[in-house]
Amino acid sequence: MIDVLLLVAGSTLVSVLARRVGFSVPITLVVAGLVLSALPGVPEYHLDPQLALLVFVPPLVYSDALESSYLDLRASARPIGLLSVGLVLFTTLVVGLVAHALIAGLSWPVAFVLGAILAPTDAVAAVSVARRLGLPRRIVTILVAESIVNDATGMTLFRITVAVALGSATGLLEGAGEFLYASIGGVAAGLLLALPARRLLRWLGDAVAENAVSLLVPFVAYAVAESFGASGVLAVLAAGLYLGHHAAGASHASRLQEAATWRLITRVLEAVGFALIGLQLRPVLRSLSTTDPLVLAGYAGAVFLTVLLMRIAWVFPATYLPRRLSARLRAKDPAPPWQFPAAISWAGTRGVVSLAAAFAVPAALPHRDLVLFLAFSVVLGTLLVQGPAFPALARRLGLREHRQAHQDALAEAAAHETAARAAWHRLEELLGSGREHAPPHILDRLRDHAEHRRFAAWERLEADAPSEAGETPSAAYRRLRLQMLATERGVFVRLRREGRIHDEVLRRVMHELDHEEASLSRR
Fold this sequence. Notes:
Elements: H1 2-21, H2 25-37, H3 49-66, H4 70-75, H5 77-102, H6 108-118, H7 124-133, H8 137-165, H9 171-204, H10 207-227, H11 232-245, H12 252-287, H13 293-325, H14 327-332, H15 339-346, H16 352-359, H17 368-397, H18 402-432, H19 440-461, H20 473-497, H21 503-522
Helix pairs in contact: 1-2, 1-12, 2-12, 3-10, 3-11, 3-12, 3-16, 5-6, 5-8, 5-13, 6-8, 6-17, 7-8, 7-17, 8-9, 8-11, 9-10, 9-11, 10-11, 10-12, 12-17, 13-15, 13-17, 15-17, 16-17, 18-19, 20-21
C-alpha cells in the first residue's frame, strides 16, 4: 500500500515540476522512473494484468468520452471510422507481419498482440497544439474522436488477440466472430447502463451524489460488459458519449465538480502510467540480457518505423480514394488540401492506453518481456519524434484558420445576444404577472448584468471601443473585479483570524467568491 502511495505522490510531483520548467511530462516521468529503479531499496512494481486494464482504461476512455461531441462524431463518422477502426486493424496486421518476420520464434498470435497494443493513438498533445495554433476544427474533431474510438477498437482487438495467443480462441474465423460480438455487445451494454444512469443522476439532485455515480459508471459499465464476454471499453465509450451529450441537463454544481474530478483522475493516471514505464523497463531489460542490445534496438526501430509509416500510408488513400470512387461523396464533402491528411498522418503519438495494454499482457504469454520492451520503446519513440515535431509541422503546413475563430466568436456573440434578450423578456413576464416584485435598483442590476454579458461577447469578437488603458470595457471590468475579489478574500481571512467570523462563514463566502472568479477567468 505504501509503495502505491509513493508511486502516485512521486509521479504527480514529477509531472508538476516538469510542467513548471517546460519539460515534456511523459519523458521526464520515464527518465525519473528509470533513475529510481536503479537506486537500492526501490521496490519493483508489478501490476496484475487485469487490474492494469481496470484501473487505467475505463476512467481514461470515459473522461475523454464525456468531453467529446456526439454531433461532431456523427458528422465526421466516415473519416473517424476509417481511422479509428480501419487504421487500427491495418496497423495491427502490418505490425504483426513485420514483428513475425523480423523476430525469430515470435508466433503469429503474439505478434498481433503487439500490433493491437500499438494500434491506438493518443492525440492529447497533438490536439492541444492544434487548438493553440488555430488549426481547422475538422482536423481537431477527427483527431479527438479518433483517439477515443480507436482506444475502444484497439483494446477490444487486444483482448481477442490475447485470447488467441493463449489458446482461448482458435483460428481467425472464431476470433472475428468474437470481435463482432464484443463490439456490438459492448455498445449495447454501455447504452443500456447509461439510460437508467441518466435518470438516476437527474433524480438525485445533489452534486456530490451525482459525481459519486459518475465515478462508478465507467467501472460498472466495464465490469458488466466483460462479464457477458462483450467489450468493456466500448461499453465505457458508449456510456460516456451518451451521458456527456446530455450533460447540459445536470446542475451547474454537478458539471463543475465532474469536470474537475475527471481532470484530476486523468492527470494522475497518466503520470503513474509513464512513471511505471521507467520503473518496469529496467527489470524487462534485465530479463532480455541474453539478447544482443543492438538486436533489440533494431527490433524497436523497425517496429517504430512500421507504426510511423503505416499511418502515413493509410491516411492519404483513406482521404482521397473514397472521393475518387464516389461522385456523390465528392459533391457532398469535397477533398481537403493535402495539408489536412499531412497533419493528421503525423499526429499518431501513443500514450497511456497503449501502456495499460502492455501492462495487462498476461504473464503466461510467450515473449512477454520482449512485447513489453517493444511497446515501451515505440511509445517513447512517438513521444520523442512525433510529439515535438508536430507544432513545427503544423506551422509549416500553414493550416492556421483565422476564419474559424472569427466565426466561433461571431456565433457566441449572437447567442449571448439572443439569450440576454430572452432572459430580460422572461424577467418582464414574471414582473408583469404580478407574482414577482423587485425594487428598481435590483432591476437595474439585473439589466446591467445581462448587458455586460452581451457586450463582453461582442467585444471579444472585435475590440472596436478600447478604453484609455487599451482594454475593452469588459476586459477592464474583469481585471479590476479580480483585484477586488483578492482584496475581499484578504478581508474575510483577516476577520476569521481575529475571531469575528466563524470558519463556516469563511468557507461559504470563499465558495461564492471562487465561483465568481472562475466565471471571470473563463471569459
